[in-house]
Design brief:
Strand content: under 5%
Largest sheet: none
Bound molecules: zinc ion
Number of strands: 0
Helix content: 55-70%
Number of domains: 1
Number of helices: 11
Shape: globular
Order of helices and strands: HHHHHHHHHHH
């Protein structure tokens, strides 16, 4: 019975157009079930790519550019930070450089070195220079004085 529902769940997950980033790390429901994983705030952001990454923040119109501040000028996604970003090359454990993400998730995600690396990613994001100007003017300057308050609520 459990196997039957796991197959249905897996079929929905695998065939869905959503969660493309997560599927690179957790390719199937049986893989997820086999993981010893209790995602915290940081890990959830890395798994979903929905977090304080410029690519996502840009999509949400919170920052002016999706690009990372590293010399590669790649889009700053969770994947970029985990696998490619040169600003994190000193902190990136060898295991992350050498194994596919699903394998890291299965066997190494709870190790000290990977946990330290995840901490380093979010520390770098916290320390990275913020844009000098806000990408979009504050709503109060955009709205005309007769703009209904309800619109203000919807914008935020
Ligand atoms: Zn980068």
């Amino acid at each position: 019975m459990e196997e039957y529902y796991t197959k249905i769940w897996d079929s929905i997950y695998v065939n869905s157009a959503k969660a493309s980033h997560t599927k690179q790390i957790i390719p199937s429901i049986p893989h997820r079930i086999a993981l010893s994983l209790w995602p915290n705030h940081s890990l959830t952001q890395l798994l979903t790519n929905h977090g304080c990454f410029c690519a996502y923040l840009h999509e949400m119109k919170k920052v002016p550019t999706p690009l990372c501040s590293c010399p590669e000028e790649s889009e700053q996604t969770a994947r970029h930070l985990m696998l490619e970003c040169s600003l994190l090359c000193k902190e990136r454990p060898t295991v992350i450089q050498n194994l596919p993400l699903p394998t890291i998730m299965k066997y190494h995600i709870n190790t000290v070195e990977v946990t330290r690396f995840i901490t380093a990613i979010f520390q770098m994001l916290q320390d990275q220079p913020q844009p000098n100007q806000t990408p979009y003017p504050p709503v109060t300057t955009v709205l005309k004085s007769n703009t209904p308050t309800i619109l203000y609520i919807y914008i935020y």
